[in-house]
Design brief:
Layout: H1 9-27, E1 32-38, H2 42-57, E2 60-62, E3 71-76, H3 81-93, H4 95-100, E4 105-110, H5 116-125, E5 131-133, H6 141-149, E6 155-157, E7 178-182, E8 184-185, H7 196-200, E9 204-205, H8 208-221, E10 225-229, H9 246-253, E11 261-265, H10 274-282, E12 289-291, H11 299-304, H12 311-324, E13 329-336, H13 343-356, E14 360-365, H14 383-406, E15 412-420, E16 428-432, E17 437-440, E18 450-458, E19 462-467
Parallel strand pairs: 1-2, 1-3, 3-4, 4-5, 5-6, 7-10, 10-11, 12-13, 13-14, 17-19
Antiparallel strand pairs: 8-9, 15-16, 15-18, 16-17, 18-19
Helix pairs in contact: 1-6, 9-10, 13-14
The structure holds 5'-deoxyadenosine and iron/sulfur cluster.
Length: about 475
C-alpha cells in the first residue's frame, strides 16, 4: 500500500483530463462498452457516477450485460461480510468470460480495496483482475485505466490515506430529478463495529463555495432535489476551522434557485445540535425527515459500541425534534447481535423502536469486521439468536410503519414525481417530503414536478394516491 501523495487538486484534474483525451483517441472509431456494479451506500453510488462521467468522456458506453463489456468495474463495500462475498462471487464467475475475451479488462475499486489482506487475496485468487484501486485515488481512474490497457501486468494502486479533495471531476448522474451531493468524506468516530474509518479515512469537508457551486449548477440543469451525503454530516465543517457548520450550509443551500427539496444523511446523535434542528425547521426546502441511527437501545451496548450517547439522551433528542418539527418522519439504523447483547439489551432496542415509532428502520445482523475492536470482543452472539432477534425487530417495525402510514389515509400530500414505478410500470411513483413512496396513475409530463395527491390506500412500505 502506498502513502498519501501530495495532491494539487486543480493540476490533478488537468492531468486526468489529459488521460481521458488519450484514451478517447485510442478508442476512436470503436464502440467500447463498460458495465459498472456498485455495492453499499449512496456515497459509493455517487463515486460511481464520477466513474461513469469519466468513462463517458473517454468514449465508453454503459451496458447492463457483462458479456457485451470491454471493461467491467466493481465499486465495492466492506461494511458487512455479505457485501464482500457478493463481490468475490462475481469475480469468480468472470474467469470464464475473461478466457473467452482476453481483451476484457476487469477492475475493482472502493472500500474493500483499502484492506491490504483483500488486495492480497484478489491478487492470488483472481488473476484475471487487471486493475485495483482504492477510495482515496478514485480521481486517478483515467490514468490507471490507461496504464492497465497498456500493460500486461495487473495495476494495483491503493493509498493508505487521502490527499486534498479533488473537485470538478466529470459526472454522469443516474437520475434527472434527484441528485446526490457528497459534502464530506471519511469518519472520525470509530464505532467499535465499523470498518468505515479505516477504509475512508478521517473527516474532510468540501468548502461551502464548492458545494454551493455544484448545487447551483444542478438547479440550472433542472434538478429538483438534492441529498447531501457524508458518514456524519453533523460534523461537516469542523475540520475547516472557519466557523462553517452544517446548519450554516443548509441555510446557504436553501437559497439556491431551482432546487425545491433538500435532504441529508447520515447524522450521528452525539453531534446533532439545536442549531441544526432549528435550521431544519426554518429552511423551507429542507424536508421533514431525519435519519438518525440508534444502532442499539441498551446504554451498556451503546457504550461498548463507542457511540458516546445513552438511550435516554437519544430519546430526549427525538422528543425535542418532534416538538420543534411536529411533521417530522424519523428513520434509523439498528444492529442486532452486537457481541455481548443479551435478551434484556435487545428488549431495550425494541423499547426504543416502540417509543420513537420510526417510519422505517434499516436493520442489520452484526457482522464481524477484522481490524475493528468489536471483532476481538468475547461472547459473540450466535447466528441463530441474531436471526431470531432480527425477525422480531422486523415484525414490530412493520406494524409501526403501517400504523404510521394509516394516519395519512385521506390526506392530501405534496410529492415530487420520480417516474414510472419499478414494480408496476402502469403506475407512476413519487415521494412525500417525509420520504414516503406514493404510487399513482399519472403521465410522463408529471415527472420532475411537485404535485398534490390524496392518499387512498396504504401498505407497509408505500402508499397509493390520486392526483388532485
Ligand atoms: N455489522 C452490521 N452492521 C453494520 N453497520 C456498520 N457496521 C456494521 C457491522 N459490522 C451498519 C450500521 C450503519 C450502517 C450503514 O451499517 O447500522 O449505520
Ligand atoms: Fe461507522 Fe460510526 Fe462512522 Fe457511521 S459514525 S461510519 S457507524 S464509525
Amino acid at each position: 500500500m502506498k502513502r498519501t501523495e501530495c495532491v494539487v487538486p486543480a493540476a490533478e484534474v488537468e492531468i486526468q483530463k489529459d488521460f481521458i483525451r488519450k484514451i478517447k483517441e485510442i478508442n476512436q472509431g470503436r464502440l467500447l462498452k463498460y458495465s459498472l456494479s456498485t455495492f453499499g451506500c449512496q456515497m459509493n453510488e455517487n463515486d460511481s457516477e464520477r466513474l461513469a462521467g469519466m468513462l463517458s468522456d473517454m468514449g465508453y458506453m454503459e451496458t447492463e450485460k457483462n458479456s457485451d463489456s470491454d471493461l467491467i468495474i466493481f465499486n465495492t463495500c466492506c461494511v458487512r461480510e455479505n457485501a464482500e462475498e457478493k463481490v468475490y462471487g462475481h469475480l469468480g464467475a468472470l474467469k470464464k468470460l475473461k478466457r473467452e475475451n482476453p481483451n476484457l479488462i476487469i477492475a475493482v475499486c472502493g472500500c474493500m480495496m483499502q484492506q491490504p489482506e483483500v488486495v492480497e487475496y484478489i491478487k492470488k485468487t483472481y488473476r484475471h483482475v487487471e486493475l485495483v484501486f482504492g477510495t482515496h485515488n478514485l480521481y486517478k481512474f483515467p490514468e490507471l485505466l490507461y496504464n492497465a490497457v497498456n500493460s500486461k501486468e495487473t495495476i494495483i494502486d491503493v493509498w493508505e490515506s487521502s490527499g486534498s479533495i479533488v473537485e470538478n471531476l466529470p459526472i454522469e448522474r443516474k437520475d434527472g430529478v434527484k441528485a446526490w451531493v457528497t459534502i464530506m468524506y471519511g469518519c472520525n468516530n470509530f464505532c467499535s463495529y465499523c470498518i468505515v474509518p479505516y477504509v475512508r479515512g478521517r473527516e474532510r469537508s468540501r468548502s461551502v463555495s464548492d458545494i454551493v457551486h455544484e448545487v447551483m449548477t444542478l438547479g440550472q440543469q433542472g434538478y429538483k432535489e438534492i441529498t447531501l451525503l457524508g458518514q456524519n454530516v453533523n460534523s461537516y465543517g469542523k475540520d475547516l476551522s472557519d466557523g462553517t457548520s452544517f446548519a450554516g450550509l443548509l441555510h446557504e443551500l436553501d437559497k439556491v434557485e431551482g432546487i425545491e427539496r433538500i435532504r441529508f444523511m447520515t447524522s450521528h446523535p452525539k453531534d446533532l445540535s439545536d442549531d441544526l434542528i432549528y435550521a431544519m425547521r426554518d429552511c423551507k426546502k429542507v424536508c421533514e425527515h431525519l435519519h438518525l441511527p440508534i444502532q442499539a437501545g441498551s446504554t451498556r451496548i451503546l457504550n461498548e459500541m463507542n457511540r458516546k450517547y445513552t438511550k435516554e439522551h437519544y430519546l430526549d433528542l427525538m422528543k425535542k425534534i418532534k416538538e420543534i418539527i411536529p411533521e417530522i418522519a424519523l428513520t434509523t439504523d439498528i444492529i442486532v447481535g452486537f457481541p455481548g447483547e443479551t435478551e434484556e439489551d435487545f428488549l431495550e432496542t425494541l423499547d426504543v423502536m416502540q417509543t420513537v415509532r420510526y417510519d422505517s428502520a434499516y436493520t442489520f445482523l452484526y457482522s464481524k469486521r477484522t481490524g475493528t475492536p468489536a471483532a476481538k470482543m468475547e461472547s459473540q452472539v450466535s447466528e441463530e439468536t441474531k436471526k431470531e432477534r432480527f425477525q422480531r425487530l422486523l415484525e414490530v417495525q412493520n406494524r409501526i410503519s403501517k400504523a404510521n402510514n394509516e394516519e395519512l389515509l385521506g390526506q392530501v400530500v405534496e410529492i415530487l414525481v420520480d417516474g414510472t414505478s419499478k414494480n408496476n410500470p402502469e403506475m407512476f411513483t413519487g415521494r412525500t417530503r417525509t420520504n414516503k413512496i406514493v404510487n399513482f396513475k399519472g403521465n410522463d409530463e408529471l415527472v420532475g414536478k411537485l404535485i398534490q395527491v390524496r392518499i387512498n390506500k396504504i401498505q407497509t412500505w408505500s402508499l397509493e394516491g390520486e392526483v388532485i
